[in-house]
Specification:
Blueprint lengths: L15 H51 L7 E3 L16 H4 L13 E5 L19 E7 L21 E5 L4 E4 L7
Antiparallel strand pairs: 1-2, 2-3, 3-4, 4-5
Length: 181
């Protein structure tokens, strides 16, 4: 391939430096787009968790109305799908007694808990919240301890994300989680 000169003596071809700069700019844009994609993907998972948490909180409030102010308290898992409705405040009562439909809870991106508003929400293992009277919470699943899918590593900035719902239905994000819209 021959190079053609222009009047000032420069060639029409790109120099190695110009090509390196273009490649570096493309690389930086790719890194930024991956970071943006991961953040928006995590926010979509959080939005899904907030939606399910709203239903769980409403189910626990309904359960307490029907059971003389007794709230269900504990972790929700797939075991709740086949549990019997005993009406004594076990966490599976909200599913077993028909307040919430059965679903694959273990496949969710978050761990879900129903809470007794009279007790501290220690089961959620969340920090950075204020107030009390919480009826449900969700915490981002962290890999380890047998959890290997639908989770984030403990060093991930999303590992501390969680949400609490109080008796009036107000949702409080914790651990840097985005505020639900």
């Amino acid at each position: 391939m021959s190079e053609t000169s222009i009047p000032n003596g420069r060639s029409k071809a790109f120099t190695m430096m110009e090509l390196l700069i273009v490649v570096m700019i493309i690389g930086i844009l790719m890194v930024l787009s991956v970071v943006w994609y991961l953040r928006s993907s995590e926010q979509a998972k959080a939005s899904q968790a907030v939606s399910e948490l709203n239903m769980l909180a409403a189910a626990n409030r309904g359960y307490s109305i029907d059971h003389r102010r007794l709230y269900a308290a504990g972790a929700i898992s797939n075991a709740c799908n086949s549990a019997a409705c005993v009406g004594n405040g076990t966490p599976c009562d909200v599913v077993a007694c028909g307040y919430l439909k059965s679903q694959d809870w273990n496949a969710e991106q978050y761990n879900f808990f129903v809470l007794d508003p009279a007790a501290a929400p220690a089961a959620c293992n969340l920090s950075g919240f204020s107030g009390s009277n919480f009826v449900a919470c969700a915490k981002r699943k962290v890999c380890g301890g047998g959890v290997t899918s639908n989770c984030v590593s403990a060093s991930s900035p999303y590992a501390s994300w969680g949400y609490l719902v109080d008796t009036s239905g107000v949702i409080q994000p914790t651990g840097g989680a985005p505020t639900p819209s």
